[in-house]
Amino acid sequence: MNPILILITIISYFAVLFGISYITSRKADNESFFVGNRKSSWYIVAFAMIGSAISGVTFVSVPGMVAVSNFAYLQMVVGFAVGQFIIAFLLIPLFYKMNLTSIYEYLENRFGIASYKTGAWFFFISKMLGAAVRLFLVCAVLQFLVFEPFGLPFILNVAVSIALVWLYTYKGGVKTLIWTDSLKTLCLIVSVVMCIYYIASDMDFSFGGMLSSINDNKYSQIFFFDDINDKRYFFKQFLAGVFTVIAMTGLDQDFMQKNLSCKNPKDSQKNLIVSGVLQIVIILLFLMLGVLLYMFAASNSITIPEKSDELFPMLATGGYFPVVVGILFIIGLISAAYAAAGSALTSLTTSFTVDILGSTKKGSDSTTANKRKKVHIAMAIVMGVVIIVINLLNNTSVINAVYVLASYTYGPILGMFAFGIFTKLTVKDKYIPLVAVLSPLLCLVIDLNSEKWLNGYSFSYELLIMNAAFTFVGLLLLTKKTKTEKE
């Protein structure tokens, strides 16, 4: 695909994005940046959340993964929807009642300053690494398609990408993100639907014929109940989906600051329920696209790349389809990637400013505004440095390790919130950081030896549940008696 055409597509896309950003960021203050003034319409937030939840990794990886996992990922996505119901009716009323700017302020109110800082730092580490990896994968694709043909270095690629994300988020914050993410979600949905349409048309499928062919294909199996040691086993996937979304959405500042921008708790609940259901539909479309890609490659004797992530980019931009498919792929990819990166940058700025530096959201506080702007720049620089380091290491196992890290870093946060919500016990706050570090380390030891100790059992994302359980037990051991109990 012509790199100049790709460049024109990207420039046009960001011209629209910056226009929306400029309009929505006028007269933005601290409260607008952090929580969007709590005036967002729930249906707009629900639509925007799709773009935030689906990263560039999802856009590239999910279609390719059907050859290995079939439609098993859908089991986890159904768990996501159930998890969002739990967030809607358990966490949302609590957070609104406490009028939180950062959700980790709950930990300070419940336990003390040590647990508050622990939650904030665990979020910071996991979000920074996760966001950097997601953006790195997209930068790698853009390097191959655009920057390399022009002889431009990867470091310039990263600098441009980070600068673009920083520019459209630096002023408006959450308020801007909700509108720009809505645009990205629209582009994402249109891209995947049109790619399915063009590929099915190229294979002379009618709509009914396409659905029938996908349904009959060996890759379309959804449910796996036979082998508990299989990572696709239903209850592994489903339960992991439930707890993963509770931890990585309900206890994640990135997603929750959008949810908390709704006018009231009921609107926020509607947003979560609708976005959870919509996510099932969108992921199903990606999986269907994956089957069509493999069918197309087989019918045209195209060699399947060793890495499944390369299948969609190769076919979309390799001249196998009309040019419009390549353009739609680029738009969908950058929409997914920059939605995730923009959300992460804003949430990291909010959490670091409010949680770690101890600033407030008051619009009249010019000191907080100046501090927030400096933090925003710093977060962008750190993210860029992490992306460059990942590229220098040039090791796929590093990327996998960062994703696995999310199971370890969100586990203690989930355990602390669960203990705080479901018990009324008080704990020795100063020892909570120790528990938060020991719990994932214990999980690591068990994970490395599980097949030997547990008769061949291999852990998947359910590591998160075990990690949270260890944290919960650790907090039980730190329980201290109240004055009433002593008497």
From TrEMBL:
The chain crosses the membrane at residues 6-23, 43-66, 72-96, 120-144, 150-170, 182-200, 233-251, 272-297, 317-341, 375-393, 399-419, 460-478. Its main location: membrane. CDD domains: SLC5sbd_NIS-like. It comes from the Bacteria. It is found in: Cell membrane. The keyword Hydrolase does not apply. PROSITE patterns: NA_SOLUT_SYMP_3 (PS50283). It is a multi-pass membrane protein. Keywords: Cell membrane, Ion transport, Membrane, Sodium, Sodium transport, Transmembrane, Transmembrane helix, Transport. Belongs to the sodium:solute symporter (SSF) (TC 2.A.21) family. This is Sodium:solute symporter. It comes from Dysgonomonas termitidis. The lineage of its organism: Bacteria, Pseudomonadati, Bacteroidota, Bacteroidia, Bacteroidales.
